[in-house]
From TrEMBL:
Residues that bear 4-aspartylphosphate: D54
Native organism: Mucilaginibacter psychrotolerans
Any one Pfam family match given in the protein's UniProt record, by short name: AAA_lid_14
Record bears the keyword NADP: no
CDD domains listed in its UniProt record: AAA, REC_DC-like
Entry keywords, A to Z: ATP-binding, DNA-binding, Nucleotide-binding, Phosphoprotein, Transcription, Transcription regulation
GO terms (BP aspect): phosphorelay signal transduction system; regulation of DNA-templated transcription
Protein known as: Response regulator
Keyword Transcription: yes
Record lineage: Bacteria, Pseudomonadati, Bacteroidota, Sphingobacteriia, Sphingobacteriales
GO MF, any single term: ATP binding
Length: 651
C-alpha cells in the first residue's frame, strides 16, 4: 500500500521541498499544515497513514502536542526539526516517535528514516494484533476454569499485568453480590496480595459508607478515564477513598473502564500505578477493543451456572512439563529485587523476550545491563543458540571491522588465518553489543549496513555472508545527547532503539538494597567458606543511605570485602568508600557546598577512588579492573575516554 503522508511544517519552502522529494520517491502527500489546528483538520479529512512533524509551529503550537492524537489513531510520525537541544529531544522522545530528522538533512537520510520507520510501525502493529489476540484468548481461558469466583478472579492480575502495568488493581462488581469487590496489590513478579469485599477499605481506614460511594462512582462511569500525575492528584481532593488508597500504596496515576454484563449490570476495572504517566490511550483502547472478551469472562465468572470445560489431556501434560521446566530454570536468572522500578524492567523483559525485536538497554555502569541481555536471550526462542557478547569499548579502532565481521587470510598484516567474526558466530542466536556508544563513527556506518541488510563481507573478501541474528545493544551514555552533538548516528540510533529498556540506578531501588546485600552475603560466605550469617539493621541503614555511584557492582564488591574482613558472625558495620551518606550529600547540595555532577563525572570520580585504593594498579588479582568487574582493556578505554590522569595507573 502506498503511504499517504501529511507534512506538518510552518516553513513553506521546507514543506514544499519535502513534498517534491516524497512524491518523487513514490509516496502520496495529502497536504501541508502549518499549525496543530490545521493538521487536525487535514487528518480528519484525508486520513493520512504517516505524518512528518515539525516541533515548533505557527501560533506557538507544538508538534509534540499533536503526537498523542496520532498515536491514538495508529498514525506513524517522524519529527523534523532544526532544534536539537537536550530538552527538546527529551520532550520528543517521550511521545515515542518513529524517527527524528535534524534539519537540514539529505534526501537519502529522509528515505532511510522513512524506511526504518515504516518497518518498525508495521512490526509494532503486527505485534499489537498478536498481543491482543493472546490477551483475549487468556481471558476466555480464565472464564472456563473450575472453582470459586475468588480463585478464578485471582488469576486475572497475572494475565492483565503483561499487557497493562499496575501496582493496584480493583475489580468492582454489582453491589448486590456478596463478593462485589476484589483488590490486588502487586508485591513481586507475578505475586499479589488479594483483598476481598471490604478488606481493602479496612486496611486503608475507609468507612463503609465512603467505600460504597466510591465503588458506585466507578459503576456509574460512562466509558473509561485516565488520570496521570496532576490529574490524579485532583481526584484525591474530592474522594476520601482515593486519598487513603494513595497514602497506603503511594499511587500517582489511575485508569478505569466501565463494562456491562448481559443483565445490564455494570462492573469496573480500576488500575493504579506508582509511576506518573503510566497510562495512555493505547492502554485504554486495548481494554475497549477487548471489552467483549472481558464482559464474557466476567459473565461466566459471576454466573453460578457457567459451564465447565475440561482441559484436554495433551494440553494438561504440556502445562505440567512447562511447570517442571520453569521450576528448573529461573525465569529471571540472577536478577534480584521486588522494587516497583525493577518489576517494571522485568515486565519489559517478559514482553520483548519472545519476539525478534532489537533491544536497546540503557542505564549507568554497574546496573546489570548484561544480565538483562542474558535473560532476554535465555527466555527467547533463540535461548539454546549462541549469545555472543561484544564489548565495543574494548575493541581496538583498527580491528573493529575484523572483530565484528571477520577477515580472510592475508587481508592485512598479521592476518595469518581466516577469522570468523562475532556476527557470524552469533548467527541463529543473539549478539549483545555492550557499550555501543563507544563505537567510532566510521564503525557505526558499517554496523548500520549490517543491521539493515543482515549481511556483510569479511575483511579481504567480496563475498556476502547472510546471517540471522537478533541484536541487543547497551550503553551507559545518553545516546540522544550523543546524537545531538554529532557523536552517534541518528539512523543507527533508531535502528537499535526499537524496544528501549532503562535499568534504574540502585539509589532509585532502595527497597532492593537489603535483598541484594543478604544475597551477596550468602554467596560470598559460601564461596569463601566463612560463616558470616547476615547483616545487622544498622548496617543495612548505612547501605540505604549511601548513593551507590557504582550501583549493584559496587555493592557486590563491597559485601565481598566485608565478608572477608568479618570472617564470621553478623556484619554490624559497613566500611563505606565515602564518609557522607546520600542524605548528607543532598543537604550539601541544597546549601550549595557540592556542585551537581554529570553521570560521567560521577563515574570518573568512582574509578579514581578505586584506582587510589589499588595504588593505581589496573590488572591482576586485587586490581581496579577486578574490583570494577570489567576487563583491564575496557578500564583502560574508560580511563582514556573520561580523561582520568595517568598518574593513578601503575601498569
Amino acid at each position: 500500500m502506498k503511504e499517504n503522508i501529511l507534512i506538518v511544517e510552518d516553513e513553506f519552502i521546507v514543506a514544499n521541498d519535502l513534498k517534491i522529494k516524497l512524491t518523487k520517491a513514490g509516496y502520496s502527500v495529502c497536504g501541508i499544515a502549518a499549525s496543530v489546528k490545521e493538521a487536525e483538520q487535514l487528518i480528519e479529512k484525508h486520513k493520512p497513514t504517516w505524518v512528518l512533524l515539525d516541533i515548533f509551529l505557527l501560533n506557538d503550537s507544538k508538534g509534540t502536542d499533536l503526537a498523542p492524537q496520532l498515536a491514538a489513531k495508529n498514525i506513524g510520525f517522524i519529527y523534523i526539526s532544526a532544534n536539537t537541544n537536550q530538552s527538546v529531544l527529551e520532550t520528543a522522545k517521550a511521545t515515542q516517535p518513529y524517527g527524528f530528522l535534524v534539519k537540514p538533512f539529505r534526501e537519502k537520510d529522509l528515505m532511510i528514516m522513512l524506511d526504518i520507520a515504516l518497518q518498525k510501525h508495521q512490526y509494532n502493529l503486527q505485534i499489537q494484533q498478536q498481543r491482543e489476540q493472546i490477551f483475549r484468548m487468556q481471558l476466555e481461558g480464565l472464564a472456563h476454569l473450575t472453582g470459586p469466583v475468588n480463585q478464578k478472579i485471582g488469576r486475572l492480575p497475572s494475565i492483565v499485568q503483561s499487557f497493562i502495568p499496575f501496582d493496584l488493581l480493583r475489580v468492582v462488581l454489582p453491589p448486590r453480590r456478596d463478593d462485589d469487590h476484589f483488590g490486588f496489590a502487586r508485591t513481586g513478579y507475578e505475586e499479589y496480595q488479594t483483598y476481598i469485599k471490604n478488606e481493602l477499605a479496612a486496611i486503608c481506614g475507609i468507612s463503609g459508607n465512603d467505600w460504597t460511594s466510591n465503588k458506585i462512582s466507578f459503576l456509574e462511569l460512562d466509558g473509561g478515564t485516565i488520570s496521570n500525575g496532576i490529574e490524579y492528584r485532583k481526584c484525591l481532593l474530592d474522594d476520601i477513598c482515593e486519598k487513603r488508597l494513595n497514602t497506603q500504596f503511594r499511587l500517582v496515576s489511575r485508569m478505569s473502564l466501565n463494562l456491562r454484563l448481559k443483565n445490564g449490570d455494570h462492573f469496573a476495572l480500576v488500575f493504579y500505578s506508582k509511576n506518573e504517566d503510566s497510562y495512555t490511550e493505547n492502554h485504554l483502547n486495548l481494554l475497549r477493543r477487548s471489552s467483549p472478551s472481558l464482559e464474557s469472562m466476567m459473565q461466566l465468572l459471576t454466573d453460578n451456572q457457567h459451564p465447565v470445560i475440561a482441559e484436554p489431556r495433551d494440553q494438561s501434560a504440556r502445562r505440567s512439563q512447562a511447570a517442571k521446566v520453569s521450576a528448573e530454570i529461573p525465569k529471571f536468572d540472577g536478577i534480584i529485587g521486588k522494587s516497583t522500578a525493577l518489576l517494571s524492567v522485568l515486565d519489559q523483559i517478559n514482553l520483548v523476550a519472545t519476539s525478534p525485536t532489537s533491544v536497546l538497554i540503557t542505564g549507568e555502569s554497574g546496573t546489570g545491563k548484561e544480565r538483562v541481555a542474558q535473560c532476554i536471550h535465555k527466555m527467547s526462542p533463540r535461548g539454546k543458540s549462541p549469545l555472543v557478547i561484544v564489548n565495543c569499548a574494548a575493541l581496538p579502532a583498527n580491528l573493529i571491522e575484523s572483530e565484528l565481521f571477520g577477515h580472510e587470510k592475508g587481508a592485512f598484516t598479521g592476518a595469518i588465518d581466516r577469522r570468523v567474526g562475532k556476527f557470524e558466530q552469533a548467527s541463529g542466536g543473539t549478539i549483545f553489543l555492550d557499550e555501543i556508544g563507544e563505537l567510532p563513527l566510521d564503525a557505526q556506518v558499517k554496523l548500520l549496513r549490517v543491521l539493515q541488510e543482515m549481511e556483510f563481507e569479511r575483511v579481504g573478501s567480496n563475498k556476502s555472508i547472510k546471517v540471522d541474528v537478533r541484536v541487543i545493544a547497551a550503553t551507559n551514555r545518553n545516546l540522544e545527547k550523543e546524537v545531538s552533538e554529532g557523536r552517534f548516528r541518528l539512523d543507527l540510533y533508531y535502528r537499535l532503539n526499537v524496544f528501549p529498556i532503562f535499568i534504574p540506578p540502585l539509589r532509585e531501588r532502595k527497597e532492593d538494597i537489603g535483598i541484594l546485600a543478604k544475597n551477596f552475603v550468602e554467596k560470598f560466605s559460601l564461596k569463601t567458606g566463612r560463616p558470616v550469617t547476615g547483616i545487622s539493621a544498622a548496617a543495612l541503614t548505612q547501605l540505604k543511605n549511601y548513593h551507590w555511584p557504582g550501583n549493584i557492582r559496587e555493592l557486590e564488591h563491597l559485601i565481598e570485602r566485608q565478608v572477608l574482613i568479618k570472617t564470621e558472625g553478623l556484619i554490624e558495620n559497613i566500611a563505606l568508600p565515602q564518609h557522607q551518606t546520600e542524605k548528607n550529600n543532598q543537604i550539601d547540595r541544597q546549601e550549595g557546598n557540592i556542585p551537581l555532577k554529570t553521570m560521567e563525572e560521577m563515574e570518573a570520580d568512582y574509578i579514581v577512588h578505586v584506582l587510589k585504593n589499588c595504588q593505581g594498579r589496573i590488572g591482576g588479582p586485587g586490581g581496579a579492573a577486578e574490583i570494577l568487574g570489567m576487563p583491564p582493556s575496557t578500564l583502560h578505554s574508560r580511563i582514556k575516554k573520561l580523561g582520568i590522569k595517568r598518574e593513578f595507573s601503575a601498569d
